[in-house]
Amino acid sequence: MGLQVTDYYYVHIPEKVINANGTTVIWDVPVITDRTILANGPDLVLHDKKQKTCLQIVTAIKDLNINTKENEQLNKYKDLEIEVSRMWKVRTKIVSDITGALRTIKKGFYQNVQLLHGHLSATEL
């Protein structure tokens, strides 16, 4: 399908919701649910309607102890993961991308990147 982009990333203003080939990409928009969930705004949501999967991606930069920050993020968005799975009838996973201020990354980071890459390749964005 091909998404519209500009030659210079710093002038590109992405759309908040993009539908492409059965996948909805939601960026910087709260997820509306049947019940009130305070943490309803992951950084990025990839909802693949064909494969019935949903990736909720959360990012952060932390100066110390990135393991603690990742656990905080996973716990914070757990209710949203459960609610989206129930409402949309999809398999949902929270993908945490926590980077240290000195470029430290958590063990398992590359598996998350592969998961994301596989999801995007399958949707042919």
What does this structure look like?
With 125 residues, this protein is an alpha+beta fold. It has one domain (9-123). Helix content is 30%, strand content 27%. The protein contains three helices and five strands, in the order E-E-E-E-H-H-E-H. It has helices at 66-76, 78-88, 109-123, and strands at 17-20, 23-27, 44-48, 53-62, 91-100. The longest helix is centred in the last third of the chain and has 15 residues, at 109-123.
Protein topology:
Elements: E1 17-20, E2 23-27, E3 44-48, E4 53-62, H1 66-76, H2 78-88, E5 91-100, H3 109-123
Parallel strand pairs: 4-5
Antiparallel strand pairs: 1-2, 2-3, 3-4
- Helix/strand/pairing class, anyone? alpha+beta
User: What percentage of amino acids are in beta strands?
Assistant: 25-35%
Shape assignment:
globular
Supply Rg.
15 Å
Major beta-sheet overview: 5 strands, mixed
Q: What's the tally of helices? A: 3
Average pLDDT taken over every residue: 82
How are the strands ordered across the major sheet? 1-2-3-4-5
Q: Uncertain regions: pLDDT < 50 for 5+ in a row?
A: none
Can you tell me the number of structural domains? Answer: 1
Q: What gap, in angstroms, lies between the N and C termini?
A: 7 Å
Q: What is the N-to-C succession of helices and strands?
A: EEEEHHEH
Number of strands: 5
* Residues in helix, %: 25-40%
